[in-house]
Design brief:
Blueprint: H1 5-8, H2 13-24, E1 29-33, E2 37-38, E3 54-55, E4 60-61, H3 78-81, H4 87-92, E5 95-98, E6 105-110, H5 113-122, E7 127-130, E8 135-140, E9 146-150, E10 153-156, E11 162-163, E12 173-174, H6 177-180, H7 209-224, H8 230-245, H9 253-265, H10 270-283
Parallel strand pairs: 8-12
Antiparallel strand pairs: 1-2, 1-5, 3-4, 5-11, 6-8, 6-10, 7-8, 9-10
Length: 286
């Protein structure tokens, strides 16, 4: 839809003109001040009175009653962009930012030459944009954002903003699995676990080795597919595994490590895993 001429002629300089052009292309934008920091655009947040960091879990910053800064403020509405709340910001703005995840994009932010070399060797070619220190590699597809996924590499997609540095060059590729995998939490080293064997021999009651393997695989699946209540699910799963397999000596450190790894992928720490395992053993009198 063509915007009114009064909006197009609104004062604010080339950055405001850039923001309006991007908004016309359905790219949600916001102004940034020096240091790539967002403005607070309401009295409660102005001059960084609120601390300047938006709540990253819900679309509303600090205690402000409405999204006025940070990624949640990014908008395509020209009335907001040129309105009185944002007018002081455009007079001081140093850059325009946009919300990549809001338009289904992911920016792989490469901050140094080594990171660029890694990307060139490891990632499919896509649209690239030069930055002050490196490059932005832009892919089609959104994902959770994360900083420092490896040395000099940040992922900017949902719930973050990225500086607009121009359209870039090259054909935009689909977000590859290798980029998505960068944010998967690698399991921490698992503390060795000793499984007690009852005195008197502890004869194995498992019919075949496959019985134990199937039990461990089902336990891993129960943890990884838990929709919530991860702490309780992990403890309950450990309890069930130890109850079924923990008294005959067939359960090894390798089996426990698989369960710990599944729990850590869901966000449990190594300490929580060890505590849950110990508590389960105590509950069973081991």
């Amino acid at each position: 839809m063509t915007q009114p001429a009064t909006i197009r002629r609104a004062p604010g300089g080339p950055l405001l003109a850039t923001a309006l052009d991007l908004a016309d292309r359905a790219i949600p934008v916001l102004p940034l001040r020096v240091g790539k920091v967002p403005f607070g655009n309401c009295p409660a947040c102005r001059d960084n009175a609120c601390g300047g960091r938006p709540n990253m879990k819900t679309p509303g910053p600090c205690k402000c009653p409405r999204p006025c800064h940070g990624w949640a403020a990014a908008t395509t509405d020209p009335v907001v962009i040129t309105g009185p709340a944002w007018a002081p910001a455009w007079k001081q703005a140093a850059a325009v930012a946009y919300h990549p995840g809001g338009i289904g994009l992911t920016v792989v932010d490469l901050d140094n030459a080594d990171a660029i070399t890694w990307a060139s060797q490891s990632l499919p070619a896509t649209r690239t944009v030069p930055t002050t220190r490196g490059e932005h590699w832009i892919y089609r597809g959104a994902m959770p954002s994360a900083n420092a996924v490896r040395d000099g590499v940040d992922i900017k997609s949902t719930m973050v903003y990225a500086r607009w540095l121009g359209p870039g060059t090259g054909t935009m590729a689909t977000l590859p699995d290798v980029v998505r995998a960068l944010i998967v939490k690698k399991p921490s080293p698992v503390r060795p676990v000793t499984v007690s064997v009852p005195s008197g021999g502890g004869e194995c009651r498992h019919r075949t080795p496959a019985f134990l393997e199937r039990g461990i695989a089902m336990a891993e699946q129960r943890i990884t597919q838990a929709p919530g209540a991860v702490h309780a699910t992990v403890y309950g799963t450990f309890l069930a595994v130890l109850s079924a397999h923990g008294r005959c000596g067939c359960l090894t450190d390798a089996h426990a490590a698989r369960l710990f790894a599944a729990a850590q992928v869901k966000g449990e720490s190594a300490r929580h895993c060890s505590d849950a395992w110990a508590n389960a053993r105590t509950a069973l009198g081991m």
